[in-house]
């Protein structure tokens, strides 16, 4: 089992940058594919980005070119660098761990508690 804790959220202005972190504890972090999802008020939780055990990445079209997912297995931590933030990026951001790096929520076995990102115009 793995425990996940997100951090780094906050209130920023449109155009600003923010970096989220996801710290993992428990079983070996490097065994897992990881993903970021987000959920805005009144909306379904949606895929943002994923990274495989070998650091192959995938992004939602809405964030491609602005967000970068990465991982540091030595630190048991995953990151999401978010640049050129827009109001529509406002959401609670969740990290997740699973066996395959997909864009499907159900394929992830473990979830963090989420961190709020609010982008004002």
Give a summary of the structure in a few sentences:
This protein has strands at residues 2-7, 10-13, 18-26, 33-39, 46-51, 57-59, 67-72, 77-82, 91-98, 108-111, 115-120. It has 121 residues and is an all-beta fold.
Structural class: mainly beta
Low-confidence stretches: none
Rg is: 13 Å
Alpha carbon gap, first and last residue: 40 Å
- H and E string: EEEEEEEEEEE
Q: What value does the average pLDDT take?
A: 96
Tally the beta strands: 11
User: How many distinct helices?
Assistant: 0
Q: Strand count, sense and closure of the main sheet?
A: 7 strands, mixed
Shape: globular
Percentage of residues in strands: over 45%
Fraction of residues in H or I helices: under 10%
Detailed description of the structure:
This protein has 121 residues and is mainly β. The protein has no helices and 11 strands. The protein has strands at residues 2-7, 10-13, 18-26, 33-39, 46-51, 57-59, 67-72, 77-82, 91-98, 108-111, 115-120. Strands 2, 4, 5, 6, 9, 10 and 11 form a 7-stranded mixed sheet that branches. Strands 1-3-8-7 form a 4-stranded antiparallel sheet, with no helix packed on it. β7 (67-72) and β8 form a beta hairpin. The mean pLDDT is 96.
């Amino acid at each position: 089992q793995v425990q996940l804790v997100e951090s780094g959220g906050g209130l920023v202005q449109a155009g600003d940058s923010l970096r989220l972190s996801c710290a993992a504890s428990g079983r070996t972090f490097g065994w897992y594919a990881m993903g970021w999802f987000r959920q805005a008020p009144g909306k379904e939780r949606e895929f943002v980005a994923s990274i495989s055990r070998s650091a192959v990445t995938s992004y939602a079209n809405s964030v491609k070119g602005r967000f970068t997912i990465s991982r540091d297995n030595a630190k048991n931590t995953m990151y999401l660098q978010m640049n050129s933030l827009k109001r529509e990026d406002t959401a609670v951001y969740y990290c997740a761990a699973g066996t395959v790096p997909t864009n499907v929520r159900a394929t992830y076995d473990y979830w963090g508690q989420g961190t709020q990102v609010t982008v004002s115009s």
